[in-house]
Design a protein that fits this description.
This protein is α/β, with parallel strands linked by helices. It is 36% helix and 22% strand. Strands 3-2-4-1-10-9-11-15 form an eight-stranded antiparallel beta sheet, with helices on one face. α3 crosses α4 and α14 runs parallel beside α18. The site of 2-deoxy-2-amino glucitol-6-phosphate has 15 residues, from α9.
């Protein structure tokens, strides 16, 4: 959560920082600010609200030529979104300004410690202790003040720091929160994520855990915790900068929905050779290791967890071993049963989700074999896994995930097919059939995306509803978890996903005249049971939208509206079913006038517990 940026160079820092913050606004957007240093003083401009509000304030008040500064866009954890709680935080002496992403867990203890030594505080934030603490240790040497302060910090942090006495340099360091360094020509950058600086440089590296970097316009010096200089290999980012822009779409979310055929193709195609064999490119986990696995645990948060729930059904069928999906925030604290025969699949778009990162560490500590499925290259989760499978979905900006979800699912399925083939739990004909199905998913999603009008029509009928229930059985139940999250997170309509068979054990009492029920009916073996469930809710006045297979000729007799997925196999259906429901969520939110890419209270990357 929160986005931080920093610039040091020969250009005016203000427009560069504001532009970079706009690119990071998906990380948090309740307040924003910048700090600029020149001629031995630091100026702070900050406000509650969006970057656009900050821009107004700066344009009204500021004439400056500063070429060094730091900036922040906030997702509040400690203290309400307000002008005073906004970052940057300036120490009371005016010597040190800090932007922070993460949580300082022992901030109350540190506050008391500093108060007893004459320091005072004006905010409710945990981050303000960092600027005061650095100021407390500062005696002319910025790096040693930062390092001394760091020894007292508990928690997670990516920090950008400027000192009034050193108007030509910027210091940054990180632990458990992401930070990338952009290396330019006569200018250098820090940022929480690459799109923030792509306009200025494509040469970047990720700062390692507890590394500290000192940036000037001409130098980038990285130090490890022993104070030794270390070199980082620079990665050249070759994405099209337009990939991180809206490209004519009203929102990133609809652009990313539309990108799914391409994203899924990019994830699957390079992993299938010309003979139809799957190549995962593992280096540390051998085929023999995969043969000896006797259980699988999938751990992740939010939509990535939902991928795990869908994949659980598939992997169990393929491999005939125990497969569990567990929320990372539970997994890390539940003393999971994991050993060297357990394959732990960790799923994360950002690769930075803190609970997921800690779940991964817990799995590793217990000797589990860890494969992660990640979108952001070289992120913390990718770096700490034994093997990483990248989704290659391109940058995903909208807070509500769509293309990352779809690519994660096919990648876990590929892993499952690969393992099933190795272990001989399915025939080679079945392997060919499944691989062929995965290869057809992109064109079938493209087919679905051609007909958005029917979804827009349904959205126009129900966008004002108060509650929506998503029902499904087996894999359709797993899919309904994601469909329900998509709708509620961006439209703020209350929605729940329910296993259809569980309905009569309580939830059916909530169904009344006009309640909207979305029934997922793609799982053929239980279609008749689903039809009975639809009849039960219809009898109580529900309006039913049913998502069905192309050849389903029964459900239309009981539902009010039918959405058909293209003709496909079972494994394809698990990918195709979600797409119309992503569209439905999007069009409903759009008709309700919601801020779709930046839903209230949310952030794209959850780097706090
Ligand atoms: C879903 O739309 C959300 N953005 C959220 O549930 C997300 O999937 C979750 O926070 C996990 O993020 P990650 O994939 O980056 O780890």
């Amino acid at each position: 959560m929160c986005g931080i940026v920093g610039y040091v160079g020969d250009k005016k820092a203000t427009p560069i920082l504001l532009n970079a913050l706009e690119k990071l606004e998906y990380r948090g957007y309740d307040s924003a600010g910048i700090a600029l240093v020149s001629e031995n003083s630091i100026a702070i401009h900050k406000t509650r609200g969006r970057i656009a509000d900050l821009r107004c304030i700066i344009e009204r008040d500021l004439v400056d030529d500063c070429t060094v500064g730091i900036g922040h866009t906030r997702w509040a954890t400690h203290g309400e979104p307000s002008d005073v709680n906004s970052h940057p935080h300036l120490s009371k002496s005016g010597r040190v300004a800090v932007v922070h992403n993460g949580i300082i867990e022992n901030y109350i203890e540190l506050k008391h410690h500093l108060e007893s030594r004459g320091h005072s505080f004006s905010t409710e934030t945990d981050s303000e202790v960092v600027s005061e603490l650095i100021d407390y240790f500062y005696n002319g040497d910025p790096v040693s003040a930062v390092r001394e302060a760091e020894t007292m910090l508990k928690g997670s942090y990516a920090l950008g720091i400027i000192f009034a006495d050193f108007p030509e340099q910027l210091i940054a360091l990180r632990k458990d929160s992401p930070l990338i360094i952009g290396v330019g020509n006569g200018e250098n950058f820090i940022a929480s994520d690459i799109p923030a600086i792509l306009k200025h440089t494509r040469n970047v590296f990720r700062l390692g855990e507890r590394e500290l970097v000192v940036l000037t316009a001409k130098r980038v010096n990285v130090f490890n915790t022993y104070g030794e200089r270390i070199e980082h290999q620079i990665t050249h980012i070759d994405w099209d900068a337009a990939a991180a822009e809206k490209g004519g779409y009203a929102h990133f979310m609809i652009k990313e929905i539309m990108e799914q055929p391409d994203a899924v193709a990019k994830t699957v195609a390079p992993r299938i050779d010309e003979c139809g064999n799957i190549e995962l490119g593992f280096k540390n986990i051998t085929d023999d290791d995969l043969r000896s696995i006797n259980s699988i645990k999938i751990t992740a948060c939010g939509s990535a967890y939902h991928v795990g729930v869908v994949a659980k059904y598939f992997l169990k069928n393929m491999l005939g071993i125990s497969v569990e999906a567990e929320l990372a925030s539970e997994f890390r604290y539940c003393d999971p049963i994991v050993d060297d025969k357990t394959l732990v699949i960790v799923i994360s778009q950002s690769g930075e989700t803190l609970d997921t990162l800690y779940a991964l560490r817990e799995a590793k500590n217990k000797g589990g074999r860890v494969v992660s499925v990640v979108n952001v290259v070289a992120s913390a989760i990718a770096n700490e896994s034994e093997e990483v499978l990248y989704t290659w979905a391109g940058p995903e900006i909208s807070v509500a995930t769509t293309k990352a979800y779809s690519t994660q699912l096919v990648l876990v399925e590929l892993l499952g097919i690969y393992m099933a083939k190795l272990r001989g739990s399915i025939s080679s004909e079945k392997v060919c059939e499944l691989v062929g199905s995965l290869q057809r998913i992109p064109s079938n999603i493209a087919l679905e995306l051609r007909d958005v009008q029917s979804i827009q029509y349904i959205a126009s009928l129900y966008f004002n509803c108060q509650d929506v229930f998503f029902l499904g059985r087996n894999i359709d139940y797993a899919l309904s978890l994601e469909a329900s999250l998509k709708l509620k997170e961006i439209s703020y309509i209350h929605s729940e996903a329910y296993a259809a068979g569980e309905l009569k054990h309580g939830t059916i009492s909530l169904i009344e005249e006009g309640t909207v029920v979305i029934a997922l009916c793609t799982y053929r073996p239980l279609l008749e049971k689903m039809i009975s469930n639809i009849k039960e809710v219809k009898a109580r006045g529900a309006k039913v939208i049913a998502l069905v297979n192309a050849d389903d000729d029964q459900t239309q007799n009981v539902a009010d509206h039918i959405i058909r997925i293209p003709a496909c196999s079972e494994i394809e259906a698990s990918s195709l079913a979600i797409v119309p429901l992503q569209l439905l969520a999007y069009y409903i939110a759009s008709l309700r006038g919601c801020d779709i890419d930046k839903p209230r209270n949310l952030a794209k990357s959850v780097t706090v517990e």
